[in-house]
Amino acid sequence: MAKVSVVMPVYNSEKYLKESIESILNQSYSDLEFIIINDGSTDNSFKIIKEYAKLDKRINVISRENKGIVYSLNEAIRLAKGEYIARMDADDISAPKRIEKQISFLKSHRDIDILGTQVKVVGNISNDIKEKNENKLNIEFDIYDDNREKILNYWYCLAHPSVMFRKDILRELKGYNDFKSEDLDLWLRAIESGFKIYKLKEELIYFRMHEESKTRVDNQNYEGLKDGIKIKLIDVFKREFKKDFKYIVWGASNGGKITKEVLDEFFEKSQCIAFVDKFKTGEFEKIRILHPKDINHIKFDYVFIATEPGKEEAMSSLKSMGLKCIKDFLSTV
């Protein structure tokens, strides 16, 4: 029986699929099964998968109509025979020793349940965008901490296709829930259940960014962002959404608008009393805009940070006021 089950959902990925499959088949650690779910592709993806399955018996192919990534992942988890489950995406590339290094670490650190890695961003995008996304994806984790605060405040700090799990914890958590941001939901449920997440300080995944990627598709109408905010609210407020609630949104732009929209859905009795923006004045969404230095003069229950460029400055400013992250404020972007 294989020690590791690599699971990879595939949907219309013919352009990058060969590189992705070969990066798993050519791993230095070979005791693995490779479960590939063809999720109703309409391009040549299934043909490519079948060609590789003829060459390597470690590949287990499932092909059916499209049911989405969450269904596919849970299906693969049910089929997995390995002690460990490694995620893989059909447009990314695993470094040759990725599986070997993750297995070695998990064997020597029995207290770690979910193990990611740092990534190298690739794709037909500018170097500035690559660097920006690498900075977000490669935030280091603390092995002595549950890393909940980082996962809540830094959106994509744990690259989903880089992760290896102990299979038992995935089954205890009953797999993935049906969210656009299914990985964020899983990380937070795992932490709440007492499982530990860590990330190797080595780039073991070539993380491809392109126009057809799941992240870009999910965010065409900001559905991924909205889902992520909802997941964070559920985790932080434990579904206690009926109380009167006065809040501030830091960021008078699109992120602030979306944040308020989701908050008003969750907190029916809530009231946004101000937006905060050091570059704007007047009103936004018919609500007054305050300069950061004026926050001390109003009463509020919570602050939601909805600006990516100003996130660090906002968090630093709020901490200097004696407010505590998660207890008093949270980043929604």
Automatic annotation (TrEMBL):
Keywords assigned: Glycosyltransferase, Transferase
UniProt-listed SUPFAM superfamilies: Nucleotide-diphospho-sugar transferases (SSF53448)
Keyword Transferase applies: yes
Family assignment from sequence similarity: Belongs to the glycosyltransferase 2 family.
Protein name: Glycosyltransferase
Domain Glycosyltransferase 2-like, first and last residues per copy: 5-172
Molecular-function GO terms, alphabetical: glycosyltransferase activity
Organism of provenance: Clostridium acetobutylicum (strain ATCC 824 / DSM 792 / JCM 1419 / IAM 19013 / LMG 5710 / NBRC 13948 / NRRL B-527 / VKM B-1787 / 2291 / W)
Domain of life the protein comes from: Bacteria
InterPro entries: Glyco_trans_2-like, Glycosyltransf_2, Nucleotide-diphossugar_trans
